[in-house]
Fold these 2 entries.
Entry 1:
Amino acid sequence: MDKLTRILYVEDEPDIQTVARLALEALGGFTVEICNSGDEALQRAPGFQPQLILLDVMMPVMDGPGTLKMLRALPQFARTPVIFMTAKVQPGEVANYLGLGAVDVIPKPFDPMTLSKQVEAIWARCHG
Amino acid sequence: MVDPADLQAQLQVLRDSYAVHLPGKLKQIEQAWTELPRGVWDEAGLQTLHRMVHSLTGAGKTFGFAVLSDVARSLEDCLQQLVQAKTVPGEEQRERIQILLRELHQAAQHRNA
């Protein structure tokens, strides 16, 4: 299994961007590229070559599911693991995210102290 | 990688900053609600308000405001129903939203240890 080092995080909320970056870089040791929108993610992902993508669901203009669909249309990201990070975690909503091709869902609000471990566990499961 | 204790200290700085800016966020939400025209469908206005409240749902607890996240989730559910049904809020719904807005302000006073 490849070691997870590069994570692309797509999130429009600056407060959440800051705390997630801190948690993932400082505790997890990952290199994190933050994108403010789905459109920005589509532009920057090819250059960054993420191994895993964290995706907010509710964003203006292009939401998380729309971004996932566009990413999947790019051959290099057709199989990149995508985790939705969202406060919208009713059972039906989670089933919908998984049906769209996400490997898992991390509920918001998240605990910064455990976020890296959650991501690592999902990564390990994807490659187990 | 940093020591978890150092991370906690850095997180505390972020929590303090969030707490400082929280009254401004609540004021913007209050203003967005006040500016929604009564009896007229304003999809863009309602979606903006929904997104602002959603942001509190997703972030509040992370920054030490667990009750705020819970109240925001209730308010967000109310607003989401209106957005999905494309319904102008009736008197009962307006009253419910007003109550939840007041509770949001109260919840902002309760910061986790």
Note: Chain B has four helices and no strands.
Entry 2:
Amino acid sequence: MSLNVSNLTVHHGAICAINQVSIAVPTGKLAAIIGANGAGKTTLLRTLSGLKHPTNGSIMWKGEKIAGIKPEALVRRGISHVSEGKSVIPELTVRENLELGAIWRRNAKESKESIDQVVSIFPRLGERIQQRADTLSGGERQMLSIGRAIMAKPQLLLLDEPSLGLAPLVVEQIFQTIRDLTTAMNLTVLLVEQNAMGALKIADLGIVLNLGKVVAINHAQALIDDPAVRAAYLGY
Amino acid sequence: MQKLLETFLIGLSTGSIYALMSLALVLVWRSTRVVNFAQAGQAMLSTYIGFEISTRTEIFWLGLLFAIAAGALLGAGVDYFFMRVLFKHAVSGPAAVVAPVIATLGLLGLIRSIVGLIWGGEFKTIKSPASTDGFTFGETTIPFSALNLLIIVTVFVILIILAIIFQRTNLGLSLRASAYAPEIAQLAGIRTARTRTIGWAIAGGVGGVAGMLVTASNFLSPYSLDLLLVFGFIAAVIGGLESMVGSVVGALILGIALTFILNYVGTSLVFIGGFAVLIVVLLVKPDGIMARGRARRA
Amino acid sequence: MRKKLALFILLGWVLLLIGDRVDELRVYQGAQIAMYTIALASIVLLTGYSGQVSLGNGAMMAVGGYSAALTLNNLGSPVWFAFVMAVVVSALFGAFLGAAAARLSGPYLAGTTLALAVGLPEIANQFAFLGGVPGILFDVGFPPARFGEEFTQYKWFFWIASFIALLALFITSNVLQSRYGRTWRAIRSHSLAAELSGVNSGRMKILAFTISSALAGLAGAVMAMTISLVAPGAYTLSLSFALVTGAVLAGVSSLPGVVFGALILVAIPEVADVLATRWGGDENLNNYLPGLIVSVLLILSVIFTPNGPGEKLKSRHHKKA
């Protein structure tokens, strides 16, 4: 178990967004986190990546406590967070966005190799490598965000609604790529999604959040087969 | 024709000094969303230090070097000790609008008072590194001097260096990313707080150069850089506070415009001219001439 | 309303009595305090209520002072008319400035008014009819003979200044408590919501600038009276600066606080004087120590009590309750 969340409680001012949540994710597995709006999914990711401080509880990553550590430091410990929505910097070029992800590693040669790697995964980015990021389509921006996260050579990847606003075909591509990456790079992945079905289909593990609490946690396929989950989140 | 050329060249020289000041203001605005009025104070203190060194060693350039170093240290210090404290005491209520502006003004007054206490108010001079006599071509002498030329060249060199830093180095990329999108930069592993302090240090160093250059042909006093601050600010606004290139362009335009007013209309209207330019730009194109239509938010 | 009127009349009576019992220096300082209360009121209205940061109130004071002096000297008008002209002319200037600045906010507004504050004295230097660097005399004349021989010039200043201050504060207080005041506060904190409720925020902002400048101009005329002179050196950037400091110290949105702020502004040079003499009487110290104290006070108060000491007291009270 490389990621261990214990009794995590997080507040936004007076409102409790995450209420004593405990999750354990094995190394190299993809966990899909689904739930309605306001369930606390984004807050969970933001707390894991250091953008938010928990009120209570602990987070263990690779055997060390990481709650309250700054995001920049967590990146150096292998945690990469692709936040919801605009996770690319529009004024920078595609190349610069990617390079940004590897600056902290201070190794120009490795950085170049990583860019080549990202381009081989997302050829479209290679075609647009010199263009400003604001000329990219929604799907391409999402690829760029994920690409930048990979540049950091992460071990834990936190993805917040990568399918948001994308056409169904593009969504399929992205999901498939995420699955392939997880396997190829032995990543531990937390995938927060509104697109519950799509996420569960590629996941090993499924976690259902509602109003800040864990309502169900099981193998992904078990959740897909669960009639209650089907009714609430999968639409049938 | 000759007068036109003279005016243009001198305007270029004046404008390039404004460009340094406005660049410093924009740098800080982009990274911290604060207009640092204390910039004038930092530049002033740096220039006094430069004055001390250049007077004792009789070498202007050494003084300039020290002014840059002092400016950088001051800039970093102000960000680290002052700005961070200010933002930690998050402000709400009727004063929220006012607080950061007033705080940097307070800092300006503080630095000015300290400078006054140490050096006193009498005008000081720094020996110019180049001749202030106009160039002579046969019979005619134009008011454009070697110093003016030196100023233009120095500023040009600095701008090139800054452009290289910002566009071609990892530090520059970090600076830009931290200014455009601090949270994304953080998640990419950039130490945004430290990067911001470096940005302030660069701004401070640049301000120090501006102070030294403007003083080389003028007097130095605790109040002598106020006008530089005002014109630097106007230039930044003309160019749009968001754009570094814009602030340089705005400054050059302002310098040339003001020199035209000076030569063709008369000294009494220079300041009104500058003020009028500011008002006109704010009314007509509130985002500055370089803006791409982004809202002018405070 | 009637209670307030009674309160002000009472205040006036108290001031009268005090004026009789203190020495010359204090009476003179009393006039200065009265002047500062008017000036600070202008900032409370503009910044505290309508949320616009202006560093140009010192320049507006200059406009008022010069208008009064020019009216008195060139038109040969009675003194009270000179004060009225100060108000009118500065109000006009304020309206113009407000119109130009209506779309600005935050640092843009601050910077523009900073430009005004730095530049206006320059203009006075350039034009001959404005008296250049030495300035113009502003002599309100001797106290009326019927007050007797004991009635000094400074006491006369004190009476005039206090009367004007009480009048100005009374009117301002009513304006701030009216729907205008409420509208300004609404614009300050929730301008979008206010606009959607039908408020024309542009016009209200201009109105705030107009009234604020009128007050500042009035204060400038009173200042001219106390030093018998209008000159560029009296209306420097440091003045605008001191005004903002006084307002922040007193609670930038608290009208009663202006008295407190004014007291501090007058006390600082005196405190600085005392300290300077005790520490060696160096001329530098004299010149720059007041500025140092003002700046330090400003920084501390902006960081720790940005809404004035009243806020801290209020919150402690709430905690107990």
Note: Chains A and C do not touch (no CB pair under 8 Å).
